[in-house]
Amino acid sequence: MTTKPTPSLWSALRHHHRRQLALLGLIALLILIPWIIGMGAGVWLIVQQGWAWYWWSGSLLLLALALLLLRHLSRSTASPMRHEALASPGASEAEQEARQRLRARVEDIEARPAEVWRQPNAASTLLLGALQDVAEAYSPGDAVALWRFTLPELLLMLEDVSRRLRQTLVAEVPLLRHLELSWVMLGLGLSGTLGKWMGVVRLLKWVNPTAAMTTELRGRVIDQALDGLSVHAKAQIAVVLVEQVGESAIRLYAGGYRRRIEELPATAPIPEADGPSAPLTVLIAGRRNAGKSALLNALLGDAREPVGLLTAATDGCRAYAFQAEQTGDLVLVDCPGVDPSAEAGRRQPWLAQAAKSDLVLWVTAANQADRAADQAALAALDALTQQDRTQRRIPRVLVLTHADQLDPPREWQPPYDLATGQRLKERQMRQARDAACQQLACPAHQATLIAIRPGEPIWNRDGLYQAIRELLPEAQQKQLERGMAKDGWFKRAADTVTSVPAVVDKTRGLVKKTLAGSASAMLKRWTSRD
């Protein structure tokens, strides 16, 4: 299956404003037609043949038509195009608020397009405002929220933005490959001289009143076209600036540029693309006797291969490699079940492992009415990320086991149609799923029913894989978030110790260079006196 390529920002802008650009092109053509005819036939020949008045009259007529088109163009207001990126799956509360703030800023630009660039330092005000919106969303009430990043993060962001800007410019304007900046500087140097000569030419044109009137009318058309379109063009530029800077700021303050040294080799010409560097860690959790072990055994079969994790598994938990065509490579982690009698304040092994996992398969019996223990456990799971509004919620799949024991319990004659089937068993399955989703605050598409009977394969294995596959994007984002989390105190202390020699060497070299320069200057002074 081939996917349609996503158009670039500039292509989308050209498509959005195609009508205004077409009218501008037509206006430019109307202005240039007299000059094209004049250069083609020769102005001197036109005068000699007595066609000068026809030429001037035609020029005035075309310019008048250009003015009419310009008036029509100025009345038709085109709202700036939005190129707003959607929030990633399972976005954190801070990211959602940041996007709301940026959306409100764009709406303010659309409501007052003429006032965007009137204030002094308008460009820096727009950029700083977008950064401030995102910073305050990630660090509310923080006086230094704008500076909550490190120097390596800032440098990596600038490198990333520069790389994307270069790719866009080279792809959209290939002429820039051959345009040297020296030509631009030379043009700027000649602009003053050319301006003086153009003033003399403008004065001499008044010798011929008809030519002067045509020239002034043409200049008026061009000036009005630029002034009339500048409001909407500047509003579009402002919207693009806010959206692009805001997107980079979200990635900056969310830790998207928090790369470790080993993730960015010294020989890498560009930053490595973001993506999961290891199989996703999937925790199988739930109450005791809910069917966790049976599910793990059915998924793994005889191919139980214990594996290690980048982050060591919690004591009492075991990790196993798993691979399926529908889900890809995963690491399944099995932990002891939820213990309702555990001491308050003591984190159970499954909960400690959940903080190190990317996806949770919450296993509970479909034929169980009391779900108070499940509700308490899932509330504790949510509490892991609710304390930090910049963290994503750990995605979960609700796995309802013992579907074969629903009424009528002695009937088991698959296949069953969970969507539209009308047999009693099928209706009971839908009711049990809907009740569990309501009690445990789980969307229906993230819940699945299964049955594991002795000597038989998992019933509705495809439904389980489908639920997992739909949450893989959220799980991948969670894995990236965990990988970019701030280092602990031990890592910070170790980095501080290893940084001391380099700082000392740099300081010693700077002091030596300063002293040597001072000594050389003093020696020159004494020599000059002698």
Automatic annotation (TrEMBL):
The keyword S-adenosyl-L-methionine does not apply. InterPro entries: GTP-bd, MFS_trans_sf, P-loop_NTPase. It comes from the Bacteria. The keyword Membrane applies. One of its GO terms (biological process) is tRNA wobble uridine modification. Residues 281-376 form the G domain. The chain crosses the membrane at residues 21-47, 53-73. GO terms for cellular component: cytoplasm. GO terms for molecular function: GTP binding. SUPFAM superfamilies: MFS general substrate transporter (SSF103473), P-loop containing nucleoside triphosphate hydrolases (SSF52540). Keywords: Membrane, Transmembrane, Transmembrane helix. PANTHER family: TRANSLATION INITIATION FACTOR IF-2, TRNA MODIFICATION GTPASE GTPBP3. This is G domain-containing protein.
